[in-house]
Amino acid sequence: MSTVLASKGYIAGTEAPFIKEMSEITHHMWMQGWDELNGGNISYLLEEDEVAKYINVLEPLRTINLTFPVKELAGKYFIVTGSGKFFRNVIKDPEANLGVLRVSADGDSVEVLWGLRDGAVPTSELASHFMSHIERLKVDPSHRIVLHTHATNVIAMTFTHDLDELKFTKTLWEMCTECIVVFPDGVSVIPWIVPGSSEIGRETAKKMRDHRIVVWPHHGIFGTGSTMDATFGLIETVEKAATVYNLVAGKEIKQKITDQQLADLANAFKVTPKAGILNV
Ligand code: 2HA
Ligand code: ZN
């Protein structure tokens, strides 16, 4: 903790609950084997009040220009993973691997308020994250988290399964009874696009208007939600269904969950399944 912060009565940055949450979830995800090397990235929208309790918001450390303006997010605070940083290392050294940012008033840059030590920069997928935050906030005011990970079985499934998102969703629903209850809105799938680009950001965000999950073929998954538990749980459930799909692939299917049973589940749990998928 710097003496400036100490003299103002701030608690050390790493004590902040949102830094602990980021450290714990990145560690947990690395343990799943989903975030090899520098794979995966997270951004978490924070309230000014919760940041200001732990971090000096009055004196930004530096400013980083954005190549994609995000006026809609002006003045908003985020904690993000750093570009090229390993999920495995976050828990050991949050200040080097994470950063707390504020989007500038014109939406053309971000101010670094804490972390990203030694000149590090925010995740290479910041465009996809920020554009997805903008779209999710329009449809869900409680939205806060965008989480990208290289979920192994989801990636595998994108090699063998049709990439039509209605077909992809239906297969996932059929793999585990509770899937349709957890993601009645289905999963979306975009074409293969070079990662880190504004184009993949725009295509992902377009899908985020009516989905919380977007699959990137042969790459991974983007999940969104209002809490870390909800967002991680959603991705975990999709990955579980994809795992079952891969386990039964090539084997004789003797019985399965029928469309009527999926409709019965939706009815019993009072969820509305995405239209155009069930034939009942
Ligand atoms: O390197 O996962 O998509 C981080 C990534 C890029
Ligand atoms: Zn990735």
TrEMBL record:
Zn(2+) binds at residues 148, 150, 219. Keywords: Cytoplasm, Lyase, Metal-binding, Rhamnose metabolism, Zinc. Transmembrane segments: none annotated. The keyword Lyase applies. It catalyses: L-rhamnulose 1-phosphate = (S)-lactaldehyde + dihydroxyacetone phosphate. Residues 20-246 form the Class II aldolase/adducin N-terminal domain. The active site is at residue 125. Its EC number is 4.1.2.19. One of its GO terms (biological process) is pentose catabolic process. InterPro entries: Aldolase_class_II_sugar_metab, Aldolase_II/adducin_N, Aldolase_II/adducin_N_sf, Rhamnulose-1-P_Aldolase. GO terms for cellular component: cytosol. GO terms for molecular function: metal ion binding; rhamnulose-1-phosphate aldolase activity. It is an enzyme of class 4 (lyase). Pfam families: Aldolase_II (PF00596). Its main location: cytoplasm. Its cofactor is Zn(2+). Binds 1 zinc ion per subunit. Pathway: Carbohydrate degradation; L-rhamnose degradation; glycerone phosphate from L-rhamnose: step 3/3. It is found in: Cytoplasm. PANTHER family: 3-OXO-TETRONATE 4-PHOSPHATE DECARBOXYLASE-RELATED, FUCULOSE PHOSPHATE ALDOLASE. Belongs to the aldolase class II family. RhaD subfamily. HAMAP family: RhaD. Catalyzes the reversible cleavage of L-rhamnulose-1-phosphate to dihydroxyacetone phosphate (DHAP) and L-lactaldehyde. This is Rhamnulose-1-phosphate aldolase. The lineage of its organism: Bacteria, Bacillati, Bacillota, Bacilli, Bacillales.
